[in-house]
Amino acid sequence: xxxxxxxxMLLIINPVSGKKQGGKYAQMLINKFSAAGFDIKAVYTKxxxxxxxxxxxxxxxxxxxxxxxxxxxxxxxxxxxxxxNKDIPIGxxxxxxxxxFAHSLGISDKPEEAAEAVISGEPHYVDVGKFGDTSFIxxxxxxxxxxxxxxxxxxxxxxxxxxAYYLMAVKEFFKMxxxxxxxxxxxxxxxxxxxxxxxxxxxxxxxxxxxHNIGVRFDDGYHELLLVKMFRxxxxxxxxxxxxxxxxxxxxxMVVFRHCKNIRFMFDDPTPFxxxxxxxxxxxxxxxxxxxxxxxxxxxxxxxxxxxxxxxPDLAVINDGEKN
Length: 324
Known about the structure:
By secondary structure, the protein is of the alpha+beta class. It folds into 2 domains: 8-120, Probable inorganic polyphosphate/atp-NAD kinase, domain 1 (Rossmann fold); 134-293 and 304-317, Tumour Suppressor Smad4 (Sandwich), CATH 2.60.200.40. The chain has helices spanning 17-35, 51-58, 71-84, 100-105, 111-120, 148-151, 154-160, 163-172, 234-246, 307-310, and strands spanning 8-13, 39-44, 64-69, 90-94, 122-131, 134-136, 139-143, 179-185, 188-200, 223-229, 255-260, 262-275, 278-299. α1 packs across α5. The longest helix has 19 residues, at 17-35. The radius of gyration is 20 Å and the shape is elongated. The N and C termini lie far apart (53 Å). The model is unreliable at 150-157, 159-170 and 307-324 (pLDDT under 50).
């Protein structure tokens, strides 16, 4: 077990995340952390004081900060630590609808087990993305269905969890279109009409673990660029769907995949982005940079290693797509 006695913990609790389970588990978490020897200050987020505000206001004197909530709560906490300009490790008790980033890192969505990662685990560095003047933890994307993550109501998310996104996807199916974009990625150029595109640092997005076994690392200084071309026929749509279901996207000629430090998206028309499930504004020219080792987060085990990719060093260029 890691040394915990006397360490000061700031416990930030978002009481409305995950079917309002954050408040429900608060006392259990306080008891568990106290029994492990932590000196705890617990603060609840409010409408006018989010996790960022709480971190900046209180965080500088603590040895670690643990946030209880969804990806947005984690993002706010990381942003607050960056503002403090301190290397304060973070514990994460995921209470969101999909918990993509937590699942990718091997953090359990069971509060007791996630708390144990803070008590017995170690903090590990992970990368984040710089999106213009703001940041994101694990995904910046545009295209069909991306608005679902921030347009689905909290009530719907709390009621159905990740199924809320699938319900919204059915509703949006007949509104699908191609998004024309020019992309520059570490010296390569691409241009086309895209069904979906993202820069990410995660195995899964929207609850779909489609980026396994293709070389994803959380601390390597690279983001994963995924460009999915707009399908032109029902046959191409079915081919794309089959790749997603089988979790084998890199062998599909409709998909371009790269590991990149810098990615620039350019559009003729303002195009809406989603950042970690929240609205990222409409963009016409946006540069995404990887910030290596941006913060530390507790996990019970070392960061997952995408083992299959380690045996295939050329996997990043297995599918060239269409280049200019």
